[in-house]
Amino acid sequence: MKSPLIKIVNVVKDYQLPRKKLLEKRPPFRALNGVSLEVERGASFGIVGESGCGKSTLARIVMALDKPTSGQVYYEDKELFGLKTKELNGLRHHFQMVFQDPYGSLNPRKNVLGIVAEPLDTLKEKLTTQQRQKRVEKTLEEVGLNRNDIVKYPHEFSGGQRQRIAIARALITRPSLIVADEPVSALDVSVQAQVLNLMMDLQEKYNLTYIFISHDLSVVEFITDSVAVIYLGKIVEQGKTRDLFRNPLHPYTQTLLAAVPDIDPSKKRERSGKKEMVFSDAPPQGCPFQPRCQSATEICEQQNPELASKGDQHVACHHV
Amino acid sequence: MSLLHLENLTVSINTADGPIDIIEQINLQMSAGDKLGIVGESGCGKSITALAIISLLPEKSIVSGRILLNGENLLDLSPAEMCRVRGNRVGMIFQEPMTALNPVKTIGAQIAESLKLHLKIGRKEIQDRVSQLMEDVGLPVRRFPLDLYPHLLSGGQRQRVMIAMAIACEPDLLIADEPTTALDVTVQEQILDLILDLADRSGMGLIMISHDLGVIAQTTEQVAVMYTGNLFETGPTAEVFNQMAHPYTHGLFSAIPKPGHSAEQERSRLYTIPGQVPEIHMRPDGCSFADRCGHALESCRTQDPPKIDLGNQHLAWCFNPINRTDKG
């Protein structure tokens, strides 16, 4: 087996909440609760879950933008948070990020040259102005933009083109890993397809590794080969995308998949008839999904299930 | 008589280069209790159509044609008369529950606002109505007191407050403009169920605006596909979705990743519609989709596409519709 490009071991991330009273001690909010996963070079790894489940926290930790409370993140064989700041910064050009909102993630006061060339500053080799411009022009053409676009500003582009600029910015340092946090959710259907195809082309060309975060299950199913489902900071199911979508084992995965509206009008879903909001406060101990789970029993209230293998999939559930 | 009838509705704005039509001559009709979907990409005029109906367009815009609500032309009404329609006979759910609510007013006060404005009922009755509405949208008052502020609620809960506001005066027509776009799939499911239940129970008409074909398929019986301010295809949802005639509708469907199609089996690419939606002031002559269309003929670039009747109220505006037998 190939050695993984990224290995995350038992990562826990706590955020301290602001206290409400002067001398009160509030328990920290646990955004990630013991997440472990491995991503091989050249793979596309999907992370799905509802908002607030810790998807983006995980992305920030993989990008070394945030330090985990405990646990390790290995890039190849180097533990990112054991490195000196200088060593870590020397590695940063290997991993790049594409953000969700192409309107907010590009500096409106910089032209395309300035935006796309910026990551080149992290490289050891110092480039001349001409070299920088050449690199930018070449990268722009790779993402389907025109080399003359370097003098333009972000407001002159449509959403899809802006996301191409963001991809060019990520690509210019020739990274091995690109973390894409909801890269297409702000785009229209027809443009979304163009950007997804582009990302697949680039992956084949440069053997890129993607960590693809999305709440859109059909997009994740399309572009990834492995996937992890996160619920309240814990991986509840993990496996090959094909297996997991065909045969979801965890009740939460099943709920998620069943909630995607079918585009076939003849397959109208049964309405649940449940009127009240479902409250998802997790029990103090026990399975975090238990309050929403239909097959929950006594043991689910008392014990938090560990991730266990089930065939090729890994599931954290007492009843699988 | 139909509940809502848009007759040659045209919306234009004045620009430095003269007026530009954002919505061009659209005709739509729905009866009481109908569920109509409007689908299209951003900038196609979905929301503008909705805002035109409740007369909330920016002041500079010019609306012509007729908007008949139960036979009464809303464009003839004075602003004061329109205020009595808006929120009373037509309710609207806006897209972003995070910004559409007033952050400095309690949710109870916001739901009560349209009741106070439109119904002549006392304070006690208003309180009872608001509590009942909260119950109806799944926010029981015992857990969600009326003096909560919106920032204490989650996205789904805020959207429920929005729905309570929209249905407070039992409107004849409810317009939902992308009501679930900012929400998780599981919450989306709950909100759509809620809207459908309320519509079925009260018999109000529903206009569901969305870019998500799945949402439209699950919630509507009639659908209108829009592009650059024009109708491209209308008809019963089942018919349009299964036997689409317009190349644009077909393109939209082909561009979404299908379930059961994981990348691992075959590294295939998605179908894409080339190019992008033209800017308002750059819309070409003839059919505005011609430049992106694989079926375009010579005539598409010069003349407006004709309306073709495919039977069973299924209409398409196209010179060269997809042959309905060979598309599979």
Description of the structure:
The complex is a heterodimer of chains A (320) and B (328). Chain A has 320 residues and is an alpha/beta fold. In chain A, 29% of the residues lie in helices and 22% in strands. In chain A, the strands form 2 sheets. Chain A has an 8-stranded mixed beta sheet with strand order 6-7-8-3-9-10-12-11, with helices on both faces. A 4-stranded antiparallel beta sheet of chain A has the order 2-1-4-5, with helices on one face. In chain A, a hairpin with a 2-residue loop joins β9 and β10. The two termini of chain A are 28 Å apart. The mean pLDDT of chain A is 89. With 328 residues, chain B is an alpha/beta fold. Chain B contains 10 helices and 12 strands. In chain B, strands 6-7-8-3-9-10-12-11 form an 8-stranded mixed beta sheet, with helices on both faces. In chain B, strands 2-1-4-5 form a 4-stranded antiparallel beta sheet, with helices on one face. Chain B starts with a strand and ends in an 11-residue tail after the last strand. The mean pLDDT of chain B is 90.
